Amino acid sequence: MPLLKLGKLARLWRNARRWFAIIGLLSVAATLTGCGAVRLAYNNAPDLSYWWLDGYLDLDSPQSLKLRSDLQALQTWHRKEELPQIADMLKNLQAAAPSNVTGEQVCQLSRYLETRFQTVLDRTTPTALAIAPTLTLAQLDHLARAWDKRNQEWREEWMDGTPQDRLNRRMKSALDRTESFYGRLSDTQKQALRAQLDASAFDAATQYKETMRRQKDILQTLRALKATPSTELQQQAEVRALLLRSTQSPDPAFQQYTERIRSNFCESAAELHNGTSPAQRQKLQQTLQAYEADVRVLMQR
């Protein structure tokens, strides 16, 4: 296979990250460019993940060697242990696709995907424990600047413009994702989707506030590790607590917001699916079947 340019690989990696969302949260997934892109992105995931992280942290040689080795090991484990479970899930979803679903059934799927995601995060904890205390103040400053750039892009996409502008952008994204599974929606279905988005509990300001909290917490904690003498066990305890706060917000208001978002999503996804035609559900089955085939190919490589 010829070498691809870094820019193209980066785009494929973004597709792969979105694909993992697709297989579990149907109506919030992003559009794929094709199964070949999924396979290529997954097989190159260790390198692509390294480049992505290095862009934020500007890693030195020892850190790079550690991260590259751990990412390769993570992919080997994921291919063996997680892909078979994903393939089975996709097969079960195909069987369920022709039938109506309830909001609770969608939430069960969402919780299952969260379990799978948490399993992967737990597997990366030793890498974080090893690398986080070694980050220099210069690297943390580099991370802060990279986050500032990303935050500006996020605000432009989700917070800038009039409420109608923001709703239009969300509608375009949601329509692309939905039609990638079900095929073209009718005008009535599009109107229903737009009404769901308009009534959604999603609040960009709330999301952004939590992002700011997490970034501030990470930078403060890691900078404190450099400023305060501590044992290796104390450092690991600080990093473990930081990882927990970064994945499970300690803010009660945000926890309540997250539950509202989950409930809203589950009901909306069920309503959307139940309003599709037999032909659209057949298209969904075919799409899921293609993803399952991709996963089973990846399991063998």
What portion of residues belong to β-strands? under 5%
Helix content: over 70%
**Integer-rounded radius of gyration:** 21 Å
Shape category: globular
Round the mean pLDDT to the nearest integer and report it: 88
Distinct helical segment count: 12
Which spans have pLDDT < 50 for at least 5 consecutive residues? Answer: 1-34
Helix-strand topology string: HHHHHHHHHHHH
What does this protein structure show overall?
This protein is mainly alpha-helical and 301 residues long. The protein has one domain (7-299). It contains twelve helices and no strands. The protein has helices spanning 6-22, 35-43, 45-57, 61-96, 103-131, 137-158, 163-182, 187-199, 204-227, 232-247, 252-274, 278-299. Helix 1 (6-22) crosses helix 2 (35-43), helix 4 packs antiparallel against helix 5 (103-131) and helix 9 packs antiparallel against helix 10. The protein is globular and about 65 Å long. The chain starts with 5 loop residues before the first helix and ends with a helix. The model is unreliable at 1-34 (pLDDT under 50).
Give the structure's gist in a few sentences.
Keywords: Lipoprotein. The protein has 301 residues and is an all-alpha fold. The chain has helices at residues 6-22, 35-43, 45-57, 61-96, 103-131, 137-158, 163-182, 187-199, 204-227, 232-247, 252-274, 278-299.
